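User: I'm putting together a teaching handout on how sequence relates to shape, and I'd like one worked example. Could you take RNA polymerase sigma factor from Marilutibacter aestuarii, show the sequence you're using, and then write out its predicted structure as tokens right after it?

Assistant: Happy to. First the sequence, then the structure tokens directly below it.
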Amino acid sequence: MTDHEFNRRIDAIWRMESARVIATLARMLRDIGLAEDIAQDALISALEKWPADGIPDKPGAWLMTTARRKAIDRIRHGQMAELKHVQIAHELEDVQQERFDAEQAGLDDPIGDDLLRLVFVACHPLLSPEARVALTLRLLGGLSTAEIARAFLAQEATIAQRIVRAKRSLAEADVAFEVPRGEALQERLASVLEVIYLIFNEGYSATAGDDWLRPALCEEALRLGRILAGLMPAEDEVHGLVALMEIQASRSHARTTADGSPVLLLEQDRSRWDRLLVRRGLAALEQAGRIAAARGVERGPYALQAAIAACHARAVTAQDTDWGAIAALYADLARQVPSPVVELNRAVAIAMHAGPEAGLAHAESIASAPALKHYHLLPSVRGDLLFRLGRHDEAREEFQRAATLTRNERERTLLLERASRCTAP
């Protein structure tokens, strides 16, 4: 095995195991920042020992044991004056036994419980969305600060500062390392789902830069979503979000040409859609529906968006799409989550179902919404509908305006190309 292959394998192990190590230490130490530092120390030990000794059969257990020992040493050598640290040290010594006893007795996995607690802390609503995303990718994704910065086209120092401030804010607010209960659970769960979907969307349609897609972020969001579904199997909206991401991700290979140029949904080669991801998404959507029905509630926003994506996934060709059903689903979504962006998507569905004039009328009815003032997709949608109505000069102006509003270079090029095609027949 070459050094490059060896390092890639260790990197993959860290991505899979780091969150569990940090989660367990955070529960015992009551300090996420300290937990991450000690987990990083364990990784450094692995990088020093594994090249000579070989990667152990159970690398996750090796990292956990090493991190536990380092935590105990740090507490005993530096902080033994406080009684609570003595207690923490004893608790750390019991971590491995606790895990073994639970496995032998067939009880709930305490490590899994710790991981769920870490999810809720990293996505705590007291943090800004940007901080939640960065902290989640760092603690749960195992991404380095440099990797997060590259993914979001930000300065590494900016991301590092964002993460440090987030951990400080959590410590100062004395945020409990626990899964909320009762009504608070749904509120906090909404924050968790929002963070995962923000990560996915940045990968699926990059807001800025030279790339239309950033697949690594989509994959990371999907991994986090699947983990959350395993940790919270009775939550319908968790399955709804997973369904939405699976189905949307299924189109990834068809969304760009060989040179990376965007391909719009109706023009995509559907034979390139990943049918395995489609099947997984449809199964998750059915699971979300069953859970919602059993609880006596209607489908939530993520499940509704997944249902819309499913309409596209089930259509063999673009012409087979049930746009009437999609328009109705958007109406349900707008009722649950009033939003001009949802209404803009609904305008597109109305146009496909009832004609461009009807769609344009709906788009015009929301055009003055403050949230759409600098939203490039409003003039983009208007341009498309005006073009279909034969109003080419107006369409060209809309596409040109949309091009000035987007920060993604691939999308800007596409919009300008569409503007150039707006000539009278």
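A couple of points you could highlight for students: Confidence is low (pLDDT under 50) at residues 99-111. Residues 3-29 form the longest helix (27 residues).
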